[in-house]
Amino acid sequence: MVAGRDKGKRGSVVAIPAEDKLVVEGVNVARKHQKPSPMKGISGGIVEKSMPIHISNVALLNPLTNKADKVGFRLLADGRKVRFFKSNNEAVDA
Known about the structure:
By secondary structure, the protein is mainly beta. It folds into two domains: 1-58, no CATH class; 59-94. 0% of the residues lie in helices and 43% in strands. It has strands spanning 13-18, 21-24, 29-34, 45-50, 53-54, 60-62, 67-69, 71-75, 81-85. Strands 1-2-5 form a three-stranded antiparallel β-sheet, with no helix packed on it. The mean pLDDT is 90.
């Protein structure tokens, strides 16, 4: 996370509910009051649920520097489009 209540937390992307939103594991967790539903087998109580966050508040983790890093795009000689970290020019998907 780059900004917000959970700034500095790390996690993996679980889902992409919209074009500009992400659900990250363990980030932006909300407590929801769940009503019991015996027909569906759901017990009642307070449930913690990861909520979506905007994609602009998330950055890729550079494994070499162990910090968040900006990403650029580059076309290779064979015509493939690859992402690279701007700080050290290493390919992301290598």
